[in-house]
Amino acid sequence: MKNLSAYIKKSDVQILPIFDLIAKTGNVPEHDMFNTYNMGVGMTVVVDKSEADKAVEVLKANGEDAYILGELIESDEGVIIE
Description:
The protein is an alpha+beta fold. It contains 3 helices and 3 strands; from the N terminus they run βαααββ. It has one domain.
């Protein structure tokens, strides 16, 4: 969608130890780790900010390992990871 970007803080990404091992062993730059492996994030669900906590609650109640990853902001940058 035009004028919207995903804003993600690296500290909010729950990175599994295997991705640290791949990065260190293969000397893979962090940028490439995020672009190639998506750091194991898997599927994402986008909901209104006011419903985010409820969505996480419902997903966890149904056996999913869910957490809030970021937010949509006005920008044309695509995905912003800081």
